[in-house]
Amino acid sequence: MKQRIFMYLFVFTALLxxxxxxxxxxIFENINSKLxxxxxxxxxxxxxxAVLQDDxxxxxHFNLDRNEDAISYFENDGYDISELxxxxxxxLYKLNEAKGDHPIVPYAASEGRKMLVNTVKMxxxxxxxxxxxxxxxxxxxxxxxxxxxxxxxxxxxxESFLYPFD
Length: 166
Known about the structure:
By secondary structure, this protein is an alpha+beta fold. The chain has helices spanning 2-59, 68-76, 81-94; strands at residues 116-122, 127-133, 138-147, 153-162. A 4-stranded antiparallel sheet has the order 1-2-3-4, covered by helices on one side.
């Protein structure tokens, strides 16, 4: 009788160890497959980030914030770039408040509307690109700007176009 109890205990223990082994192996394989999936996703995201960084670098090439020569031009004249860039943009936006037609935009607006400069991108220490719209028609302008000796800001329209209306 005592031998049978030991035999049953041995078989029960062997089955328990076998169950634990199979269960642990399944859990381990599941974790490994999840880890591989995460590694693949991480590599995909790293590649996406690298592509986006290249795109940002390319887009920001013509940007006053990243143009050391243009920044040096203003700093040599004693200007603080962190204050000057917003000032120039604000002065261009203030032209939206002028009575009558816009002083820079060479196109007339739709009836009852006014052409307004919406977005301004400063390319360097001399050039600006901006877009304008009256809500129905829109276009873009290329401006030059300079700060005169008496510290006045002067804009000059170089080129403009109006997108065709569909």
